[in-house]
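User: Here's a protein and a ligand (S-adenosyl-L-homocysteine). What would the complex look like?
Assistant: Let me lay out the input and then the predicted complex.
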Amino acid sequence: MKPRILDLSYSEVAELAITLGEPSYRADQVLRWIYSGAARSFDEMSDLPRAFRRKLNESCRLFTLEPVDEKVSKDGQTRKVLFRLEDNKTIESAYMLYEATESSRERRTVCVSTQVGCPIRCPFCATGQQGFERNLTAGEIVEQVLYFVWLTRGVGQDGAALPPARRPLTNVVFMGMGEPLANYESLKGAIARLNSKTGLGLGARQITVSTVGLVPQIQRLAREDIRVELAVSLHGATDRVRNILVPVNRRYPLARLIPACQEYLKMTGRRPTFEYALFNGINDSLDQAQKLAELLAGFPCHVNLIVGNPTPGKGFRPSVPRRVAAFRKELTDAGVSNTLRQSRGADIEAGCGQLRSRRLPNGA
Ligand code: SAH
């Protein structure tokens, strides 16, 4: 199988150029076309020698994800794309536009998947119900982002022009299907390409890794050169409650998880965010809110509350507005920095935890 060029590091692309009889600076030209020029084929790279373009076509693959379904939410702010991979497995990615508010700038965010399915099996998450099929490669992760880079240049599938904001995307969040830290090498490769000047050039602060809380990998991420933002899916303030929602808590209980997050802050200077999806009668009591405030007392961090999204099966229902408000007030009164995030794209099943591949007509 020919290598996928997006799976190669910068130096490997330079080596490839040399192997094909060209100077190594050709790597910069090719990558500039891919990341800044939004080129979709080697043939478009018009300032490269024709013979080199032909050799590139013969020796490697460029884009390998095929968009097979796209849905746009009613408000036009969220777009979900189902991609078919080369082995016919499918993954989903989402693109979200956020208008500026008093406290935040306008954002255009891509939410990427890192695995087909997920090995963690959180009972309230649609992906967790599918089981685990395989890891994505670094290139397959980056390709999801590049698809939206290309879209924002104004062309959609079938070449149709798109109305929403055409300005460059500002953020990438690893919050799609899968557990990013369970696919560490691909995650690391993808972050490198997103951050690099010879890649997409996104700032490390514009990249967020969301994890279920794998302690050794959080410690490893804290020591990487690229200091990305960390989000941890907490969903429970005591081991008893968190064990129900996030089964991996039995392996990495709160007494290990919270110190690892504190270490992350110490090593990187980045304040972790704790995600807390509220489910009616399960983790939304005032007692849990108080325990959460105690757990995080004195820790400079942020809590992102989300009203749980309904997913098929199981008895996890969204928390009702009155309980959400009471939970939030308890945190705020205790001095815990928090926001209530509106889950986006729920009408197209693109909300948190709702991404899932559906059966395609050809049975894939
Ligand atoms: N595996 C990673 C990233 C994937 S999901 C993680 O667990 O963090 C991104 C976020 O969506 C996680 O916080 C996850 O717990 C949350 N989520 C999953 N299902 C949800 C649901 N039904 N309602 C609300 N949030 C959900």
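Summary: DSSP finds ten helices and twelve strands in the chain.
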